[in-house]
Amino acid sequence: MLRFSVAAAAALLIGLASAPLALAQGTTCNSTVHCPRSAPCCSEYGFCGTGQFCLGGCQPFNSYETTSCKPNPVCRSSTTDFNDLSRVLLNATQYNGNASKWDWVLEKGALVADPSGNGQRLTLTEHGGTLLSSTRYIHYGQIDFTMQASKWAGVVTAAITMSDVKDEIDLEWASTPTNQVQSNYFFLGVVNYTDNKGGTHNFSGNTFTDMNTYTVGGATAASADDQLNWQEDQLQWAVNGKIIRTVTKASTLSLDGSQYKYPSTPSRIQISIWPAGLPTSAKGTIEWAGGLIDWNEPDYVANGYFWNTVKSVSISCADEGIETDSTILPDTVGYSYTGNDTSNTPMVAQTNHSTVLGSGAPGALAASISMIGVTAAAAAIIPALTWSLW
Ligand SMILES: *[C@@H]1O[C@H](CO)[C@@H](O)[C@H](O)[C@H]1NC(C)=O
Ligand SMILES: *[C@@H]1O[C@H](CO)[C@@H](O)[C@H](O)[C@H]1NC(C)=O
Ligand SMILES: *[C@@H]1O[C@H](CO)[C@@H](O)[C@H](O)[C@H]1NC(C)=O
Ligand SMILES: *[C@@H]1O[C@H](CO)[C@@H](O)[C@H](O)[C@H]1NC(C)=O
Ligand SMILES: *[C@@H]1O[C@H](CO)[C@@H](O)[C@H](O)[C@H]1NC(C)=O
Ligand SMILES: *[C@@H]1O[C@H](CO)[C@@H](O)[C@H](O)[C@H]1NC(C)=O
Ligand SMILES: *[C@@H]1O[C@H](CO)[C@@H](O)[C@H](O)[C@H]1NC(C)=O
């Protein structure tokens, strides 16, 4: 119920944007209607195109060919201190797939330096929210988000992983009491309203005033063996090193025993603040978010925005780049989809084909940068993310 209608939002927001309509009006794509050869890449938002359409979020199975999308830049263990924005690209239209140069892209919205020096505030105004996306993809491992969530009715903070086939692992704060965080996960973007996988977790601490560390993948490492806990067989969430939830892959087996509905594909890391409490939102969405946003709220009036604060993000990869072969350039290693296995679960391999636009196959068809209108499609819409909670 809460999952956002991307198609409707696209139409609405493109209409509002002043960008040229040529590409924005380009064909749409989905699991039954794939992209044509001339515009082979199916973007995260379901539009066919070239250039940036072939980068982060490009949907391999809805594109002209599975390999039309550029490979996903492979995981590198790292820590970003958000006081330092030197590896954060603030103008997403300049992103060309070079994850050696940028760790994060500001897909939408605006950052404001935290007044206490604790990194950056992601802001939300009447014009929309903010979405920060990693350039690299994690394929199992652990992510530690050190952050403060938002606390206002209708305003949602999310820290998630999202793959190009819509496997998703979520941490969310949806106007919950300030001692709670919500968890959820999705397999291939399938939402089953009668079988919600969401969890709500109390902990001792304040989500708005404390700088807590929220982990997807597992608890803080006690040993190297314990560390990498978004694994092939289990997934965990933790707060300040304490595990709050474990989901085993075994527990996700479908009723007919044919498929594990378990997130298993390389995913970008995304942090966002978004307006769920708008009159245009579905009723269930508004309720989940704690009501409509009050634009006269004193914090909003005083600051000119609502916010959350991200101090740092640490990534520990279970699956870093293959570099055993000296002919492989480390900067070009990516994950690429190779099809489905017999249970219709996507299979992924590492490739040395460049992740960068304009350099080499695959995505040769998509190599020329042609992105007029991409901001209308890509930057004006908050992705489907985590917009469901039951
Ligand atoms: C895919 O898109 C086509 C054309 O826009 C539409 O008719 C069809 O219903 C869509 N299919 C799905 C599964 O969304
Ligand atoms: C973002 O980059 C594009 C392409 O280089 C440029 O045309 C545009 O003016 C930039 N936007 C801002 C706000 O700097
Ligand atoms: C990517 O960026 C790195 C670091 O700035 C640079 O050395 C490299 O040449 C770039 N690669 C491509 C293919 O543009
Ligand atoms: C969780 O915290 C809320 C208040 O924020 C409280 O009402 C509820 O009883 C707590 N639940 C548990 C299981 O402790
Ligand atoms: C949704 O979940 C319910 C309860 O587990 C199950 O009976 C139903 O088949 C599921 N629906 C789909 C479409 O998988
Ligand atoms: C990719 O790997 C193959 C086989 O090792 C090698 O021949 C080729 O030169 C490599 N290409 C790049 C761009 O690294
Ligand atoms: C793989 O299976 C999924 C369903 O699990 C389906 O949507 C997708 O189209 C399949 N892809 C290919 C290439 O067969």
TrEMBL record:
The chain crosses the membrane at residues 364-387. SUPFAM superfamilies: Concanavalin A-like lectins/glucanases. Residues 1-24 form the signal peptide. The keyword Glycosyltransferase does not apply. One of its GO terms (molecular function) is hydrolase activity, acting on glycosyl bonds. InterPro entries: Beta-glucanase-like (IPR000757), Chitin-binding_1_CS (IPR018371), ConA-like_dom_sf (IPR013320), Glycosyl_Hydrlase_16 (IPR050546). Residues 65-304 form the GH16 domain. Keywords: Glycosidase, Hydrolase, Membrane, Signal, Transmembrane, Transmembrane helix. This is Glycosidase CRH2. The gene is UTR2.
